[in-house]
Amino acid sequence: MKEWYTPAELAKLGLPGLPKGRTAIADKAREEGWRSHRDLAGRPLARRRKGQKGGGWEYHYTVLPEKAAGELVHRQALDAMPPPAAPAGIRQDSAALWASYDLLPETAKAEARFKSKVLLEIEAKQRTGAGKDETVRDVVERWRADGREKISVSAVYEWFRLVAGLPRQDWEAALAPRWVGRTATAECHPVAWAAFKGDFLRNSKPSAESCRERLTRLAPGEGWGMIPPTRTLVRRLEREVDRRIVVLLREGPEAVRKLWPHLERDRTCFHALEAVCADGHEWDVTCHWPDGHVGRPKTVVFSDLFSNKYLSWRTGKTENADIIRLAYGYIIERFGIPDYAYLDNGRGFAGKWMTGQSEFRFRGKVTAEEQTGIFVTFGTEVHFCIPRRGQSKPIERSFKDMADRVSKRAEFEGAYTGNSPMNKPANYGTKTVPIELFLSILDEEVAAHNARTKRRTRVCRGVASFDQAFEESYSEAQAKGLIRRASEAQRRLWMLPAEKVKTDKDSGFIKLYGNRFWAEFLIQVAGQPLIARFDPQDVMAGCHVYRMNNAYLGFAECLEAVGFNNTEAAREQERKTRRLAKLTNEAAALEVSMKPEDIARAMERLRPVEPEPAVEAGKVIRPAFEVPRAARPDRDEDSEAEIFMLDVMKGVAKLAANN
After folding, report:
1. Comparing 209 with 126, which gets the higher pLDDT?
2. Within a domain: residue 201?
3. 222 lies in the same domain as 319
4. 458: CB partners within 8 A, 6+ apart
């Protein structure tokens, strides 16, 4: 298909919506700024002619007015189109008639069928011997009496002229109307048109009427002349501006995404528990807690992606790492360890305690020294989903159903808040319900949600419930050894919450919530950051200590404070301190086998030997420190050191006697 045309080529084509003549088309291109047009990929829709003398511009057909571009595409399509399959018995030369007929709307096709029916009726009466003129008048009068007021004798003879020489099977196609609607449009100054588009195509979505009204106020001062009616401006916008661009500029990028058909995801590729999906939901019910707190509870739910069954749920005042940890831990304890987790990108799920060291957490900066999250520790591959998108998190779709079945229960009448400030019920705020009642009803409704049969999913096939689909697949996965179970050491990771702590630089004790924890192994990691896992209901019971990579170090007991005058505690502390010092001395003696003196003597042998002073000829100096002595047997280093010192002392005494 030819896509680029010069003004001269466009003038020869005589397309509707374009002026006649090469110069007029070039002027129109300049006024409407065809050279500045670009497609969605940013490519220019005008270019200099290549390989032609004199240069000049050529334009992509998409910059043309809608009618001109449509007619151009239609002509080229007819030229390139193979002959369509015509009704049986139609000759090849009539294919063009049927191709044009097929592009017409149904109203035009119905009119063509009526015309063909009238002509066939006239021919049938002529075969009985009636004259043509008389038959035409009779048929016209009969159809007029039936309400066809527009039919006339002259029109019928015109229809016969159109089908002259054509076989009867082509009459319907030949009689189809070929009229073209009104193509002339009201003129609009190019700058005024640009101002209308700039005002109308905004995220605020102003009405076309208000945009035109502002143009009419600006027009006298700008010299724009008469502004066309609102409907004319809107029709031109629909013709010349791509709908995708209008949606982007008025409704935003998210609306553009909806223009593409959504991706249908098949979850039968998983087995039960292989993949889970999790998200939090804030209920539209006002509750009160035993501590006096009043608010809307928030629940974290984990569902099985294969069956849609709710596997675990935990409720709290906020969506935090504790309830996420407990909900995930229940799955591990009750069913096993999932291989994949599709999570919301909220702070609770994307926090370091849950997903630390995940490659794509999209929150915070992943550093080498940060702690390893629980999901990573258990080998669950984490995928963070786009917020508020049910295609990525199927659990969000079920929340709509659960909100109706839970928040609007009769027990919560008066405590229901509505799902938005604009949808508050008339009795809003007249009541709060105990959190215990809410939790019991939530458990009841979740059980009913899982047990409801005839679910219309690929897995349930309109027959089974989420419970039944999960149990069937879970049993098969267990038999094949596909379900992973947690060890006792792993259970501590989710049963106890974690806190990042830094040990004391001297003794290594840990300070947590006003309490100190210590064990002897902490001396080896004094001053280092560690992870302490503890029972929040009984902090005094001690804590389990891990390195930042979740390597277990040991259990540290709580060091309780004592009275200032408690001498018994002081003696016990002194006893423990002396014992630690004694054991440390013994260990040091075993560890160090070479003394400092040994090292000093070894270094002595490395010193260079100084040369003896030169002696002048004729002079003999009697040595004072060297005396002839018999050869002595080899002795160890300690004996040689003692003999050396004796020789020094003898030499000093002899020197004193000579003086």
Report:
1. 209
2. yes
3. no
4. 266, 267, 268
